[in-house]
Amino acid sequence: MHDFGFVIAGFFVGTVIGLTGVGGGSLMTPLLIFFFGVKPHMAVGTDLLFAAFTKLGGTASLARQRLVPWRVVGQLCAGSIPASLITLAVLHRVGAASPAVQAVMTTTLGVALLLTAAATFYKAVRGKQLPRSVNATELDQATRARHWSLPVLFGAVIGTLVTLTSVGAGAIGVTVLLILFPLLPLPRIVAADIAYAVPLTLVAGLGHASLGSVDWPLLTKLLAGSLPGIWLGSRLMKHTPERLIRSILSVLLAWAGTKLVFI
Questions:
Q1: Are 26 and 252 in contact (CB under 8 A)?
Q2: pLDDT tens digits for range 100-150
Q3: Is residue 15 helix, strand or coil?
Q4: What is the residue range of 210's domain?
Q5: Total structural domains in the chain?
Q6: CA-based, 20 to 30 A from 63: which of 21, 93, 190, 246?
Q7: At 147, which helix (H) or strand (E)?
Q8: Residue 133 φ/ψ region, left for φ over 0, alpha for ψ in the -120 to 50 degree band, beta for the rest
Q9: Distant-in-sequence, close-in-space partners of 250: CB < 8 Å, separation ≥ 6
Q10: How far apart are CA 6 and CA 160, in angstroms?
């Protein structure tokens, strides 16, 4: 019965990731720990590889729909991959991160998510709708950050957070993209967030696997549900009203933030 529960959980989280870009760490890690009783270090390691393979499936679907802004993905990866490798090297050297540092980090992350949730919800209720599509000239303009170093810098912060906690690739990634690329249509924001998280979570997940903190049979069951889920979610995204996606996003960010602050 537990096995079927893992597949259903995978399908649910995969669908949510496809629609909003959020849910790999912020939804799946708490689900594994609080509903299924998986040990936290195993939940983090398994969830990172779950996110990598799930988002790879989603990226393939979104790339076929020509929604992925590859320039944005490249800039974020330029910061997040080296930061993840450095963090893994430190984890190998000193073992698990200090509980005090982890507590400060997760609390700060939680507060940031709660503030983002409030801003996203406000934009869903009161903000003006972004265009669902843009022409080539507008897209070129929309994918240029105010300075090239900003996506790289934010990417490095996300890479460190994700490697330590498995949370942040989707939740913080969407937030950063909304701030750095305000003219980018929401479907492309979600597509960029899903695509750049693939190499990041794969690198971090394989690093955790080398530490022995991945449950491979559990990962297989989760992926059996999530791969059909993210395909469905990424298809529905183009046809779902932006206000609804932003509202779902704000609820998910608030959930993730509350969990990080109070657990």
A1: yes
A2: 666 766 777 777 778 778 877 877 777 655 555 666 677 777 788 878 899
A3: helix
A4: 2-262
A5: 1
A6: 246
A7: none
A8: beta
A9: 117, 118, 120, 121, 124
A10: 28
